[in-house]
Inverse folding.
């Protein structure tokens, strides 16, 4: 079986669902009557959990102390009313731990970097120096420090905001475009085969990345991987909250 390593920062996602039937008499804000609460791992650990669900033998290196993202959501409409982020910064990875990773054990390394402090640009450069097959999804400004990354996955908004116009990248760039699917290297379009009703976009990028990697390690074909990732992400956004992909539904 192929083996994958995920490195990146993680959080705890909490969804507090409730009903909003009236405004507060004290201020023009809705009053929430809680009905239920759901929690799960987010960010890099969500990539890890999706890879496991897709049958991949996967390890993870991530932070132990995790920020908590709490979303307050209307049970009926699934509309998010408020998000509260607690302890939003993360301590940098132990450099001795990073130095001693046995990269040769892994077919692919996935860097899921939410730019919360766990990985620096130098750390990611070092990972690429030690392994030829790295998939990167980052919230950092992307420039020459990422030149040796084999695959970069980025959504269209982040590309427009974070991609340096002077960066001459020679790897494969996979840009996701929401309901319009994905584009490979600015030219090959991969539309979504079957549109799903969108209920929640939370975690969809993590699912896409995990599915992209899961298919690639089996088939070594980035185009096949993009098609599979599109299908998985389209299913996940039809679920409530941060859902883990269900292969039986794809």
């Amino acid at each position: 079986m192929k083996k994958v390593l995920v490195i990146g920062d993680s959080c705890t996602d909490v969804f507090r669902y409730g009903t909003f039937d009236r405004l507060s008499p004290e201020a023009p804000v809705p009053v929430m009557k809680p009905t239920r609460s759901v929690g799960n791992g987010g960010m890099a650990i969500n990539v890890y959990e999706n890879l496991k669900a897709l049958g991949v033998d996967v390890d993870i290196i991530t932070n132990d102390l995790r920020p908590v993202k709490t979303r307050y959501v209307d049970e009926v409409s699934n509309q998010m009313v408020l998000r509260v982020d607690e302890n939003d910064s993360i301590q940098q990875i132990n450099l001795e731990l990073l130095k001693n990773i046995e990269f040769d054990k892994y077919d692919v390394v996935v860097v899921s970097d939410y730019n919360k402090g766990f990985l620096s640009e130098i750390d990611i450069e070092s990972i690429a120096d030690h392994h030829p097959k790295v998939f990167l999804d980052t919230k950092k400004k992307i420039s020459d420090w990422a030149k040796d990354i084999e695959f970069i996955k980025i959504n269209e908004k982040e590309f427009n905001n974070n991609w340096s116009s002077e960066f001459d990248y020679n790897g494969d760039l996979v840009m996701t475009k929401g309901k319009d699917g994905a584009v490979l290297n600015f030219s090959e379009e991969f539309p979504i085969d079957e549109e799903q009703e969108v209920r929640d976009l939370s975690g969809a990028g993590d699912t896409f990345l995990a599915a992209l990697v899961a298919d690639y390690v089996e088939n070594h074909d980035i185009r096949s991987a993009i098609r599979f990732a599109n299908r998985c992400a389209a299913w996940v956004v039809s679920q409530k909250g941060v859902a883990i992909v269900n292969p039986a539904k794809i």
